[in-house]
Automatic annotation (TrEMBL):
EC code(s) of this entry: 3.1.3.18
Higher taxonomy: Bacteria, Pseudomonadati, Pseudomonadota, Alphaproteobacteria, Hyphomicrobiales
Domain of life: Bacteria
Pathway: Organic acid metabolism; glycolate biosynthesis; glycolate from 2-phosphoglycolate: step 1/1
UniProt name for this protein: phosphoglycolate phosphatase
Pfam families xref list: HAD_2 (PF13419)
Primary enzyme class: hydrolase
Catalytic reaction equation(s): 2-phosphoglycolate + H2O = glycolate + phosphate
Amino acid sequence: MSRPQGLKPPRAILFDWDNTLVDTWPTIVECYRDTFTALGHTPWTAQEVKDRAHGSLRDAFPALFGVRAGEAEKVFYETFFRIHLERLTPLPGAEELLARCNDLGCYVAVVSNKVGDNLRAELAHLGWQRWIKRAVGARDCVRDKPAPDPIYKALDGTGIAPDETVWMVGDTPADLKCAHAAGCLPVLVGGAEELTGLLLDHPPRLRARNCNHLVALL
């Protein structure tokens, strides 16, 4: 997809975190595997995790584990805290993308369904605070993505209102739904072909293959 003609330059770019800027699928898959196993469920395959694990745990786990949701979350985070920083890997072109956004004078923030404190720990681990001004994660707002609340919090105090000059960039339908709900420009980066049918209700205005392609669209 090329950049639509007449599209205004972005004033702000809000990025999803997991698998938009950093590769965390191996960590997420292992956390889900250990959780399902501990609670006596058949673990999802890696592909099933990629297809289904798009919401915050506080939204997803009650439906998956019922009254044992709290127990499941405890197991998940036991694995997560053991491995998440040592395995954290920037996606190719992510640093160049963030630097380019800053060169263009864009306000840059992260809007993620990773718990806020864990998100900010990963951001600090990579030293990316020089590019990213604010990081809003799960439980930082009353509602998580796909509700628009995290976008509003990310923009609070900036003087920038949600419109098509605010890009919400992510790799899942939840990111696009969040962008539509807030009135921002929805941008899909990556995303498997099987997502196509899920995008009809909340389609992207821009679609990039990866971080490097998004640099070219900018």
